[in-house]
C-alpha cells in the first residue's frame, strides 16, 4: 500500500506496522525540530557540532537553521529537495536542520562524486538548491556545477561555502533573513531525507526516510549503544552516508551528544582529537578501525575515554575486532550490520564479557525484525526502515510479500539470535565503506573502443574490505590497461573511488548456457590464481 504525505511525497505504508511502531514508542508526534528547540531553551550553550574551523551551540544552530529555513521558504514550497555536497563541515548541520525546519527534504551528496553521478542525482530528485564548497581537495565544484546545470532542464540554485560566491548564491546572505516569520508545522510521517545508494541495477536509488524512521533509529541507538548526555562522537565517516549523517546531525540534538567532525581521515590526528576531546564513541568501516588502532599504539595511548567503537561494512575481520578490543581495554568493539534502507539492522554486542559474539557475528537485531529466506537472504523490517525509494518501480524486487526489505546479503544465525553475514546475493562491491555498483561502471566501459567484454568483481582486501578488479576481453589487437580505463572513466565524470584498482586481460569471460557471466568463477580464479 502507498500513501501521499502532507508535502506531496508518495511513500510505502503499512497501517498495522505504523500502529505497532507508535504503540512501542518508536514513532511519536514530535520531530528533531522540536528536540532542537527544546535544546536551545534548556541548554543553549551546549556545543552540538564542531569542526576545525568552529562550533555550533544549540542556540546558535537553532538561530541559523531558522534563518535558513525562512530563506528557503521564500523560494520553494515545503517538500522541496535541498541538496548539499559538502565535506564534514559544521555548516552542513545548519543546512540539514534548516531544511527540516522548512518542511523540506535534505539530500546529502558525497563530495567525491563527479559530473556523471551528480547530473543523475540532481535531475532524479529534482533538487531546488545545492550547497557546495568553493574548492575541496583541489576540485573546482562551481565549475562542475556549471557543467552539470547546463544539461538539466530545471537546474538547482547553487550556493558556495567557504569561498567567494561569484555568480552563485552566498551562504552567509541566506542566514541574514530577519526573524518573525512562522515556520510550518511538521508531520512526523513526512519525508525528511533522501539519500542515494548504489544499486545492482546500475543507477543509484534514492532512499526516502521520514522523521519517524530516523527518530526511531536514534532512539534505538540511545537505548543500545551506551550513549549518555555529554558523550562525544568523533565523526570521520562522510556526513553524506547514513552513519555519518545520524552521528553528526541527529544524535547531538536528540541524545545530548557532541559531534566532532573530521574533514579528512588521518589516524594520528584522530587519536589526538580523541584524547584531547575525550571522545567516547566512534563508528566506521574496517579501514577506520585498522588505522586508529595502529595510530593509538604508535602514540602509546589506549584511548581511555572511548566506550564503544562500532565497525560495519564489508569484510570486518574477527581478528581485528579482538585485537582492538584487547588494546582499547576500556571500550567495547563490535561488528554491526545495516544498510541505508534499514540502518542499524543489528546493534552488535555491547556486553564486555561476550567478545566472541562481538567479533565473530554482527550481533543481535535491535528494533528490526530479521528473518532469512529459503535461500539464506537477510530480510528485515522495522520502525527505522526507509519509507520507500523515490521511484516505486525500484521497489518491485526490494521487498518480499510481507514487506521485509530484501538486503541481497546472505546470512546465518549463530547460537539462535546472533546474525552473521556470510556473503552477498547482489552484485555489489563495498570498498572503504563505499557501495560501488559494478554494473554502472561495466555499462560505461562497454563503450570503450578497445573493450569487447568486461566484468568487474570485488575480491577480499585486508585493508579496504574489497578490491575492484576489471576483467577485460579486449578487441582484436588492443591491450587496454589501467591508465586507459581510468582516463575513459574520468572523461565521463565518474568519481575516482568507483574506478577499478586493477585490470587483467582474459581471452573470454566464463558464462552459463544463458550467456550470464559467472562472476563467482571469476572471483575464484582471481583469489586462488
- According to CATH, the homologous superfamily of the largest domain is ANL, N-terminal domain
- At the first level of CATH, the class of the largest domain is Alpha Beta
With helices defined by DSSP (H or I, 4 residues minimum), what is the helix count?
A: 16
Weakly predicted, low-confidence segments: none
- What is the end-to-end distance? 50 Å
Strand arrangement, major sheet: 4-3-15-14-16-17-18
Please compute the radius of gyration using only Cα atoms: 23 Å
Q: Name the assembly state.
A: single chain
User: What is the CATH fold-level name of the largest domain?
Assistant: Rossmann fold
Counted up, domains total: 3
Estimate what percentage of residues fall within beta strands. Answer: 25-35%
Query: What characterizes the major β-sheet?
Result: 7 strands, mixed
Short account of what is shown:
This protein has 529 residues and is of the alpha/beta class. Helices cover 32% and strands 25% of the residues. A seven-stranded mixed β-sheet has the order 4-3-15-14-16-17-18, sandwiched between helices. It has a five-stranded parallel β-sheet with strand order 6-5-7-10-11, sandwiched between helices.
Amino acid at each position: 500500500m502507498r500513501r501521499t504525505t502532507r508535502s506531496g511525497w508518495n511513500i510505502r505504508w503499512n497501517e498495522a506496522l505504523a500502529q505497532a511502531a507508535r504503540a512501542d514508542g518508536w514513532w511519536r508526534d514530535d520531530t528533531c525540530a522540536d528536540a532542537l528547540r527544546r535544546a536551545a531553551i534548556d541548554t543553549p550553550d551546549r556545543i552540538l557540532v564542531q569542526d576545525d574551523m568552529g562550533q555550533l551551540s544549540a542556540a546558535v544552530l537553532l538561530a541559523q537553521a531558522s534563518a535558513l529555513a525562512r530563506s528557503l521558504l521564500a523560494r520553494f514550497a515545503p517538500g522541496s529537495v535541498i541538496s548539499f555536497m559538502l565535506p564534514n563541515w559544521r555548516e552542513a548541520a545548519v543546512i540539514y536542520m534548516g531544511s527540516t525546519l522548512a518542511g523540506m527534504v535534505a539530500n546529502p551528496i558525497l563530495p567525491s562524486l563527479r559530473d556523471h553521478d551528480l547530473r543523475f542525482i540532481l535531475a532524479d530528485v529534482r533538487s531546488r538548491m545545492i550547497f557546495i564548497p568553493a574548492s575541496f581537495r583541489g576540485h573546482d565544484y562551481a565549475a562542475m556545477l556549471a557543467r552539470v546545470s547546463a544539461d538539466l532542464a530545471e537546474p538547482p540554485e547553487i550556493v558556495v561555502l567557504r569561498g567567494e560566491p561569484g555568480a552563485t548564491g552566498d551562504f552567509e546572505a541566506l542566514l541574514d533573513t530577519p526573524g518573525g516569520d512562522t515556520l510550518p508545522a511538521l508531520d512526523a510521517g513526512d519525508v525528511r531525507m533522501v539519500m542515494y545508494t548504489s544499486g545492482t541495477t546500475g543507477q543509484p536509488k534514492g532512499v526516502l526516510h521520514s522523521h519517524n524512521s530516523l527518530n526511531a533509529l536514534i532512539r534505538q541507538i540511545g537505548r543500545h549503544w551506551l550513549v549518555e548526555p555529554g558523550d562525544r562522537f568523533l565523526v570521520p565517516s562522510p556526513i553524506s552516508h547514513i552513519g555519518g549523517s545520524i552521528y553528526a546531525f541527529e544524535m547531538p540534538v536528540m541524545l545530548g551528544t557532541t559531534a566532532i567532525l573530521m574533514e579528512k581521515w588521518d589516524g594520528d590526528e584522530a587519536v589526538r582529537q580523541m584524547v584531547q576531546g575525550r571522545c567516547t564513541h566512534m563508528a566506521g568501516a574496517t579501514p577506520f578501525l585498522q588505522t586508529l588502532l595502529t595510530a593509538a599504539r604508535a602514540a602509546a595511548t589506549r584511548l581511555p575515554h572511548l566506550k564503544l567503537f562500532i565497525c560495519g561494512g564489508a569484510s570486518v575481520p574477527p581478528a581485528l575486532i579482538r585485537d582492538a578490543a584487547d588494546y582499547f581495554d576500556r571500550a567495547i568493539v563490535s561488528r554491526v550490520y545495516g544498510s541505508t534502507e534499514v540502518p542499524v539492522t543489528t546493534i552488535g554486542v555491547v556486553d564486555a564479557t561476550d567478545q566472541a559474539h562481538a567479533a565473530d557475528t554482527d550481533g543481535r537485531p535491535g528494533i528490526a525484525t530479521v528473518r532469512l529466506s529459503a535461500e539464506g537472504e537477510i530480510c528485515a523490517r522495522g520502525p527505522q526502515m526507509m519509507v520507500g525509494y523515490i521511484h516505486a518501480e525500484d521497489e518491485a524486487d526490494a521487498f518480499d510479500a510481507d514487506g521485509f526489505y530484501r538486503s541481497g546479503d546472505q546470512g546465518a544465525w549463530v547460537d539462535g539470535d546472533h546474525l552473521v553475514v556470510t556473503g552477498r546475493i547482489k552484485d555489489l562491491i563495498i570498498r572503504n565503506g563505499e557501495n560501488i555498483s559494478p554494473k554502472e561502471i561495466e555499462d560505461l566501459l562497454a563503450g570503450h573502443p578497445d573493450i569487447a567484454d568486461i566484468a568487474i568483481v570485488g575480491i577480499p582486501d585486508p585493508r579496504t574490505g574489497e578490491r575492484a578488479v576489471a576483467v577485460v576481453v579486449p578487441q582484436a589487437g588492443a591491450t587496454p590497461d589501467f591508465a586507459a580505463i581510468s582516463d575513459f572513466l574520468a572523461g565521463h565524470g565518474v568519481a575516482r573511488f568507483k574506478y577499478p584498482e586493477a585490470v587483467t586481460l582474459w581471452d573470454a569471460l566464463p558464462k552459463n548456457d544463458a550467456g550470464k557471466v559467472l562472476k563467482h568463477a571469476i572471483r575464484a580464479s582471481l583469489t586462488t590464481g
